[in-house]
Write a structure and sequence with these properties.
Layout lengths: L2 H4 L4 H21 L2 H6 L11 H29 L1 H19 L5 H29 L5 H30 L2 H20 L13 H12 L2 H17 L5 H9 L3 H11 L13 H22 L4 H18 L6 H29 L5 H7 L2 H24 L3 H25 L6
């Protein structure tokens, strides 16, 4: 086999890339507006839940999305990727569909749990398939395409599909997600092929043994806890930031500018910046600049770069406290995203550096714990602070100041970690 042939991707690879695009597009399409929909008045098409109750939902379902792949990966190894995908798409699409007409708090909570259960089983299958369908010559490129497809889905669905459906009925957004993920069941049944099984797979018992092994490493756990502070800020992009935008920021100047540009191509455009476009900005900046940012940081040390990324994220969040100007809001989101793009790849790299040589894959597999802690705390904390400082005291600036202080604590902690705990060779 020639090198050129060796770098080509299989049909199965492109199949799971399509699956990832539709699943992530459906997920981010829903998440880009979910917190707004749940608290919106019933007369306006929402469900009228309290922000605190929505914070509880988010602090349960999002950590589950990070935790479930530990078990689902082992289950998939035992029963097969194809069977696991069939289960995942049936459960996921059912969850989305049931949410489209659910209105009682307990029922909505249950349907979203169903959706996350499916997504949690889906998540490790795609990366696992890509790992099995690529080799040393094309693995880096393959995973690059994988991450690109995630952000492409997160960009296109909220930008194009969500605003159109929302104008008809909020429930159509969930039906869209049900169709987007349900259609992938057909792809699984008729196109996807079970990849070659590796010689060694993990049992569920081994999974729990590995968890205990990783949790004993205090240096690793402290790093996870520190880094999770940044992700407390990140998860505000799906909750408090959206509430603030819809309740306090007048985006008319942005709408006027964009519609002025669109009028060159169409008559009387009616584009409107809304909650879903926060996700669009985040994904769009990553699509445009991730390669550029990665090139700049490719030879910089991991921890100092993470400090810089956290600083940018903190500035992005803090900027929101300056003014309710729509331009300040957009600049804040862009700077925060630059911080995410700077810090996160280096975090992954750092985990690989501090892990014992024979346990690198294990440590990287459990590095996702930052998301469990960040989202678990972020949902309830964000909702509680928003109700107190914004709804009750009418002080949104104080809210963003508090979150930016969490970022400052994360930066100081990273600097202290680098000085006192980080291995000298790193």
């Amino acid at each position: 086999m020639t090198d050129k042939q060796n770098t080509k991707f299989s049909k199965n690879f492109w199949t799971v890339i399509v699956m990832e695009f539709f699943e992530r597009g459906s997920y981010y399409g829903v998440m880009s507006v979910l917190s707004v929909y749940l608290v919106l008045n019933v007369s306006e098409g929402g469900l009228g839940f309290s922000k605190e109750s929505v914070g509880v939902i988010k602090s349960v379902i999002t950590p589950m999305l990070y935790l479930l792949p530990i078990l689902s990966g082992a289950i998939a190894d035992k029963f097969g990727y194809r069977k696991t995908l069939i289960f995942a798409f049936i459960v996921m699409s059912s969850g989305y569909f049931l949410t489209s007409f659910a209105s009682a708090y307990g029922f909505v909570f249950a349907t979203l749990l169903l959706m996350v259960l499916g997504a949690g089983f889906f998540k490790p299958i795609i990366s696992g398939t890509i790992a099995r369908e690529t080799n040393e010559s094309n693995s880096t490129k393959g995973f690059g395409i994988f991450y690109w497809s995630i952000n492409l889905g997160a960009f296109i669905f909220p930008l194009i599909i969500v605003p159109y459906l929302k104008a008809i009925s909020w429930s159509y957004i969930f039906i869209m997600a049900a169709i987007g993920t349900g259609s992938m069941l057909l792809v699984t049944l008729f196109v996807y092929k079970e990849p070659k099984k590796p010689e060694t797979t993990k049992s569920i018992v081994e999974v729990f043994k590995n968890i205990a092994l990783v949790l004993k490493d205090f240096r690793f756990i402290i790093m996870i806890v520190i880094y999770s502070m940044f992700w407390i800020l990140y998860f505000q992009m799906f909750d408090t930031v959206l509430w603030y935008l819809t309740e306090y920021v007048d985006m008319t100047p942005v709408d006027t500018m964009v519609n002025g540009f669109l009028s060159i191509f169409v008559n009387n455009p009616g584009w409107k910046f809304d909650a879903e476009h926060v996700t669009v900005i985040n994904a769009g900046v990553i699509i445009l600049l991730q390669l550029f940012v990665s090139k700049i940081t490719s030879k910089t040390k991991a921890l100092p770069t993470m400090v810089v990324g956290t600083l940018l994220g903190t500035i992005g969040m803090g900027i929101l406290a300056i003014s309710m100007s729509p331009w300040v809001f957009i600049i804040g989101i862009i700077i925060f995203t630059l911080g995410e793009m700077t810090a996160h790849p280096k975090f992954i790299s750092y985990v690989g550096l501090i892990a014992p040589p024979d346990k690198k894959a294990l440590y990287l597999g459990y590095s996702f714990l930052y998301g469990v802690i960040g989202s678990g705390i972020g949902g309830i904390l964000g909702a509680s602070l928003y109700v107190h400082f914004v709804d009750n005291l009418k002080q949104p600036g104080t809210l963003w100041f508090i979150f930016s202080m969490i970022g400052v604590v994360a930066m100081i902690s990273l600097i202290a970690y680098n000085k006192f705990l980080a291995p000298k060779k790193v």
